[in-house]
Amino acid sequence: MTEIFKNIPEIKFEGSSTKNMFAFRYYDSERIVLGKPMREHLKFSMAWWHNLCGTGADMFGVGTADKSFQSTPETMEHAKAKVDAGFEFMDKLGIRYFCFHDVDLVPESENIVETNKRLDEVTDYIKEKMKQTGIKCLWGTANMFKNPRFMNGAGSTNSLDVYSFAAAQVKKALELTVKLGGTGYVFWGGREGYDTLLNTDIKFEQENIAQLMKMAVKYGRSIGFNGDFFIEPKPQEPMKHLYDYDANTAINFLRQHGLDKDFKLNIEANHATLAGHTFQHELRVSAINGMLGTIDANQGDYLVGWDTDHFPSNVYETTMCMYELLKAGGLKYGGINFDAKNRRASYTFEDMFMGYILGMDTFALGLIKAAEIIEDGRIDSFVKERYSSFEVGLGAKVRRGETTLEELSEYAARLGKPEFPGSGKQEYLEGIINSILFK
């Protein structure tokens, strides 16, 4: 195979003092953190769509990056060139996983039968590369938002024809995921929502979405998919109102429709902030509900109100992310997928590597610092002490469900005026985090 990234070496760990742009400063895959190698905590994954397909095009201009990889775009030759580029890229960075949409892999035909033949051909080629390199598929999905037929959604569409086409795409994408050994399957409903209630039956649409997911679970299990299905929450864009607004909304939907045994959540940092939450909040809500499945790693621009998908650079945010993951015991079937893209002006092959080096280092440093917070113990001790009045006596009875409103009312009457509940000491705790981050 002809080398595509000719001037870029294998990226190795050199430490925080290095000035080599093609080196990791913090990501040392074999470093032991809380008893496990860093690579086991950080199951990094390459997003096929942004890294191999994204050219920097936006609503105001065409792309700036050449992702032809010495082939003719929108051909099967190009599809295989992307495979060559992707596996060389992952191998040089030490990334062991990838994620894909169906139409990332091949140019879509007008005829789904022909598209499926193309998908079979390219996934045969991908399997050869996987065998040669040991790189694995983390999860797959179907792109049911780009094609104009999905203008009103896929599962939420008003058209049986479109709904059937969506079902066919899901069926094939599941088959490909099983073929490539993926341990997850994602539903991202970018158009599963509405712009106006004047033409929308919300109940009807949500029931149809749930039915599509139930059929996916049934079929997936029948062909040997034993991993998790994921929903990826997002509040809006491109539709004004999306049905999976945030973690709480998605969890409620799953439980309402009896899907919570097979589905977990794919939490994305940029989607969390668009919903008015922190990344940490969405991870915590998912974890305490037993729904934390996998992560899309990126960050948004707080001055821009849409999904900008920057590579992660905010160590405070990745520290809090890894704190939640460590406390939750990690991700069973999921990983850390870089659903992130270079800025429009960062258009070279070198920039592709720079983005991933930045993201991997930022998460690695976040992991190191999160472990230090846990080992330090002051945060956990403070939280435990803050709720200590519920550990004994009447408080313990509340927790066990053994008291009544009458008993609590009698207790309150004896108290007279309750004391303040104790200082939250937020500033002190934030100071602890800073002292660990910057020591």
Shape: globular
The number of helical runs is 16
- The ordered H/E elements are EEEEHEHHEHHEHEEHEEHEHHEHEHHHHH
Structural class: alpha/beta
How many domains make up the coordinates? 2
Strand count: 14
What is the CATH superfamily label of the largest domain?
Divalent-metal-dependent TIM barrel enzymes
Keywords: Carbohydrate metabolism, Cytoplasm, Isomerase, Magnesium, Metal-binding, Xylose metabolism
Cofactor: Mg(2+)
GO molecular function: magnesium ion binding; xylose isomerase activity
Family: Belongs to the xylose isomerase family.
Describe the model.
- The chain is α/β, with parallel strands linked by helices and 439 residues long.
- It has 2 domains: 362 residues, TIM Barrel (Alpha-Beta Barrel), CATH 3.20.20.150; 59 residues, no CATH class.
- It is built from 16 helices and 14 strands.
- The strands form 4 sheets. It has an 8-stranded parallel β-barrel with strand order 5-6-7-8-10-12-13-14, surrounded by 4 helices. A two-stranded parallel ribbon has the order 1-2. A two-stranded antiparallel ribbon has the order 3-4.
- Strand 7, helix 6 and strand 8 form a beta-alpha-beta unit.
- The longest helix is centred in the last third of the chain and has 28 residues.
- InterPro entries: Xyl_isomerase-like_sf, Xylose_isom_bac, Xylose_isomerase.
- This is Xylose isomerase.
- Its main location: cytoplasm.
- One of its GO terms (molecular function) is xylose isomerase activity.
